[in-house]
């Protein structure tokens, strides 16, 4: 029996953010010939102020939501006849529903903000929870995604030599091959002179040596993925300073930024590192977090 390919799961709730996520996920499913699954969470909301004569049975609400979700799926099938599209309407909090759906998914795609939460936040709590706990790559489409004019597509990936970084590199090259894009491998370091003042003159810090070591680390980290995807062009970008700041700056002209869920620094008990969190909150292009 032929094993069914893992689906691309997209979180959908009818919001502008989820519609952007749906467009990205559909294009990805078409490129990779993977099934597309629309997942919507159905939470019971109790209205404390009753409106006489306007009580709607819960099952009627669920049926209406399922009908609307199926209509969206049917529209996608009409535009992409060869694409397998199914829908799931699950009861429970959106984050939990999507994390559960991620267990057998190739990728989970969602908007940075849905219908709930505080509109002033750049990224919603559902996006944070799903990127933190899902076991497959999660792609978040920012609500303020900015179009940019540049020649050729670009996938940016953070490289630090960690295990999570290695998986992020593999994902970045896979995406770049599908998008016919170039990979930009970004690596940064922090000079001790920026963090240590007393006796700084006694420190031996060779900037050129550190740069060369960084170049070698990136080359070794990328070698495997580059060999598996020989048609993908890639370049190295090295810089002194904050990794998050370098990735956010590079995201201004990128089609996708890819980060590992945990880097080499920070507290090992955290599921999502500070760099990933910062990029999620501030980048204006799609961001992929790879566990």
Automatic annotation (TrEMBL):
Q: Which residues form the UspA domain?
A: 7-142, 154-291
Q: Mind telling me which Pfam families this protein's record contains?
A: Usp (PF00582)
The record's section on InterPro entries has: Rossmann-like_a/b/a_fold (IPR014729), Universal_stress_UspA (IPR006015), UspA (IPR006016)
What top-level branch of life does the organism fall under? Answer: Bacteria
The UniProt similarity line reads:
Belongs to the universal stress protein A family.
Which protein, by its recorded name, is this?
Universal stress protein
Q: What organism does the record attribute this protein to?
A: Kribbella sindirgiensis
């Amino acid at each position: 029996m032929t094993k069914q390919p893992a689906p691309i799961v997209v979180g959908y709730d009818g919001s502008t953010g989820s519609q952007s996520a749906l467009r990205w996920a559909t294009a990805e499913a078409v490129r990779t010939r993977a099934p597309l699954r629309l997942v919507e969470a159905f939470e019971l909301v109790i209205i404390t102020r009753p409106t006489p004569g306007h009580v709607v049975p819960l099952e009627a609400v669920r049926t209406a939501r399922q009908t609307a979700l199926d209509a969206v799926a049917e529209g996608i099938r009409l535009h992409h006849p060869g694409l397998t599209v199914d829908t799931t309407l699950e009861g429970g909090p959106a984050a939990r529903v999507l994390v559960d759906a991620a267990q057998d998914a190739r990728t989970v795609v969602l908007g940075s903000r849905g219908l709930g939460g505080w509109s002033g936040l750049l990224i919603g709590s559902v996006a944070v929870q799903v990127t933190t706990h899902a076991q497959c790559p999660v792609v978040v489409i920012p609500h303020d995604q900015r179009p940019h004019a540049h020649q050729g597509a670009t996938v940016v990936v953070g490289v630090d030599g960690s295990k999570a970084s290695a998986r992020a590199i593999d994902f970045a090259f896979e995406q770049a091959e599908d998008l016919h894009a170039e990979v930009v491998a970004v690596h940064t370091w922090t000079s001790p002179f920026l963090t240590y003042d007393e006796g700084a003159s006694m420190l031996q810090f060779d900037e050129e040596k550190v740069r060369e070591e960084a170049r070698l680390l990136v080359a070794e980290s990328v070698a495997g993925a580059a060999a598996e995807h020989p048609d993908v062009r890639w370049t190295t970008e090295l810089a002194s300073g904050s990794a998050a700041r370098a990735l956010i700056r590079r995201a201004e002209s990128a089609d996708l930024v890819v980060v590992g869920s945990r880097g080499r620094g920070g507290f090992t008990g955290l599921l999502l590192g500070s760099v990933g969190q910062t990029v999620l909150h501030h980048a204006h292009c799609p961001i992929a977090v790879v566990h």
